[in-house]
Amino acid sequence: MSDSAFDDYLAQWRGASPERTLAWRFLRPRERMCFGALAALEHEWLKVLREAREPQVAAARLGWWREEMQRAPQGQARHPLTQGLFAAPRANAVPVPHWTAPVEAAMGLLMAPPPADFAAQCGVVAPFADAIAELETCVWFGNVATSPRAAKVTLLAHLAANLRGLESMAERGRSPLPMNLLARHGLTIDALGSDSPARRAAVRDYAAELQRGLAGAARMQGPLTLFRAVGLQHDTDALGRAMWADEPLAGLRSSAFGFRGLLKTWRAARTWRSMLPIESRP
After folding, report:
1. pTM
2. What is the pLDDT of residues 154-174, one digit of tens each?
3. Which of 59, 144, 174, 282 is surrounded by the fewest CB atoms within 10 Å?
4. Do the Cβ atoms of 230 and 264 come closer than 8 Å?
5. For 142-258, where are the alpha helices, taking DSSP H only?
6. Domain count of the chain?
């Protein structure tokens, strides 16, 4: 394994958002190697979904990842991330189906038809979010049951990230917004590529829907990884800015992560550690 390649993947994931860099400081070196590698690995899977223009190409790339997740637990990893990740005992303790399920669910997203409304959109994404949440919970907390809270936060984080990439998705003929919201504001997928009063109104409506969902998830009980807990806080704040900003996408994409963010991250880290099994605590 190339240490520089492994570190580069971790740095790319960490540098994509300020809350990740801050959460990183609350992890011990071995935790960074394992949890960071898992987050960066999931990022690679998501890049396939969000960047490939042809479903057949994306399906082939995901097929490679599925094979990689079957091989890696047997000591046959080829990618720097999986080589580094499966050097950690936590990763090797996770059953193989937990590793392949997210990739297989991602394949299902490739051919999913445009969702009619928000409920249908959540239904389409749910198998992928559930599989990711189950994998993360197993790696971070051990073989414990995945909570509905973790799955809901994962799903809404995925939708919020899609909204941030609205223009890129529209360029590939896809919409992060459900069809009924486009119809309500008289928009087409092509029209999403350009700023307009109608697009701004649609984004505000969708941001409000996502924020309501995240507010509900915040009130739920159940374990969240440190990265998910901090991401929940970041997305909630960003969606709030989007709802009130003149240009909602700019508000969503802006970062306001000062002392308040540091305090919230510290609290999230304490909560996460309090949920660890006794044998995993320092």
Report:
1. 0.94
2. 999 999 999 999 999 999 999
3. 282
4. yes
5. 148-164, 166-171, 179-184, 197-219, 226-244, 248-253
6. 1
